[in-house]
Amino acid sequence: MNPTNYLVLSAILFSIGAAGVLVRRNAIVVFMCIELMLNASNLAFVTFARTNGTLDGQVVAFFVMVVAAAEVVIGLAIIVTIFRTRNSASVDEPNLLKL
Amino acid sequence: MNNTLAVLTSGEASPGEVVAATGTFGLIAALIAIPAAGAVILLLAGRRSDKWGHLLGTAAVLASFVVAVVLFVELLAQPEDARTINQFLWNWIDVGTFQAPFALQLDPLSMVFALLVTGVGSLIHIYSISYMSHDPERRKFFAYLNLFIAAMLLLVLANNYLLLYVGWEGVGLASYLLIGFWFHKPSAATASKKAFVVNRVGDFGLSLAIMMMFATLGTFTFEGVNATIDQADSNTVTWIGLALLLAACGKSAQFPLQSWLLDAMEGPTPVSALIHAATMVTAGVYLIVRSAEIFNLSETARLAVVIVGTITLLMGAVIGSAKDDIKKGLAGSTMSQIGYMFLAAGLGPVGYVFAIFHLLTHGIFKALLFLGAGSVMHGMDDEVNMRRYGALRSFMTLTWVVFGIGYLAIIGVPPFAGFFSKDEIIHAAWVEHPVAGLAAMIGAGVTAFYMTRMMAMTFHGKSRWEDGVHPHESSPVMTVPMIILAVGAVVGGFMMLYVGNIEEWLAPVVGFEKAEGGPPTSVLIAMTLAVVAVGVVIGWRQYAMRAVPEVAPTQVSALTVAARNDLYGDAVNEALFMRPGQHLTRTLVWTDNKIIDGAVNGTAAGIGGLSARMRRWQTGYVRSYALTMLLGVVVVGAVLALGVLL
After folding, report:
1. Which of A57, B298, B460, B523 could be joined to A45 by an S-S link, Cβ 3.0–4.6 Å?
2. Taking chain B, what is the end-to-end CA distance rounded to the nearest angstrom?
3. Which residue of A has its CA nearest to B619?
4. ipTM at complex level
């Protein structure tokens, strides 16, 4: 088993996720892209855990999953609230912070 | 006080012993206090004292004069070496070694000044009662006159330079108030301001001199300075002398600070008489003679005094010859006569006494001439242009007689007062500085010319009055003081020189040496009288025997034009000081506005502009923030990766 392939896959997934966050406007899709980036990092953690023969990476992967779950709950709640008030799930709409 | 005593015991140069004031001499302070109280009462009581203010003011000065006479009699009774009386009143400033006592000194020099100031001052006060009777502000006028007298007495009675400075400034203030008494006239307001500003230049010299004295000698009392000045570095002494000369020039209207005097004629005529005869302009001569010990040690400073005096005596005489305004003519004459006194004072021990002698005789006859001019103006509806006078002899006989006596006194005809004093100065000048002696003699001729011109244009020839003018003799309140002064102008010179022995009287204070050598006195007297006769004849031929045009002719020599313009004194001041000063202030204002304000405002504008640009980075789009974060992470990661690799 060659860890490099896993790491390359992880990098590709992360890049796709990052590009999605930057270019997509729909908040749900942006959200899914963030999940993609988190899972790409999980893959990298697990790969390194396997390579080094320790459990640290696997433990961190669990932490990331928990954080991701919590994030989904809060994030979806925010998105639903915004959708209710502005009738749109576009991330460009809430730009009130701009002067 | 300890300081003073220590100096006294070690001082060989101080003339005689300084005696503490006891008995009658306790009245010295009263000399100043009475007129000062008069001024304070009149100013504080305000309009309530309008009815009796002039009487109180006159009484105050008369009382002061009586005190002066009493003190004079008492001083005469003292032995010659015990005539310097000090009255210590209180410690004015007492800080470490800096001791300024409020103490007065009466000695033969300040005594004659006190007599002149209060005596002539009293007569001028009496005269003013009638002269100012139509002025609604007469009470205020008398308050200022009293202030003037008090300040002048403080000046001549102080026993140290710092207290003298107080009187000096008081005189400046009083002259400012009086020259600008009719301040509703813009010309009078400007003239008073000008007098004040020009005097400040001189005052600067006096403050410098006092600072130098304290810095080098550690004292500024007259005894202290006189006793220790010979230990000072000779350069320092010269600089102190020159600073004192600058001060004297300002107060006495000597070249190059002469320009204020002619404009000062804007004040009421009694003020001119007071300024020119008894107070103010004599202060400079007093200062120099009082500082005799300093000037004795510095040849250079004395020479500077002689040069200033000589230039001014000629300048004043030339200016006086071209003025049609009777008061300005007399003002030029004052400059010239004070020039004689400076010349005499600059000659050293041979001249100090005669400077004071001429000051005293001049004080009498110049007061007489000014009061006479005031009397003429009073009868001519305040006309001052001599071209609109003429033939007043038969209408104002008394004024003509007393003015004529003043005229004979000032041109130096024996046996009138001016003859004795001027003759002594010319003699001493011939011995010490022949060039100055020659200038003094020429000055005597020019004096004769302009005074003859004034006499002829005012009292002789044909009448050239404005329509509706009815010349009349003034009231006795005005004529009696003039008569008293006229008596003084006749006998004063002779009395002071031969009966009163003024040289011996003043010698213990200022020192005296008889001028030896030079041409014989009789030759000099004959030459001077010949020059005077030439001046009189020229003046008489031109202004009494020929008709005087009512409007000043314009086709005149360049010298006359220059003299009419005060020898361009104002133009020089304007070109040398005023315009460069204006340019300097304008440049400074420009620098302030453009460079200093520019730097401050530019910084603010720059930061404002920058923040306006940077504000654009805040787009409000979440995606652009995410991009920024990503780029940041990439940069940080690159740096870390490079750090690991290299």
Report:
1. A57
2. 88
3. A98
4. 0.82
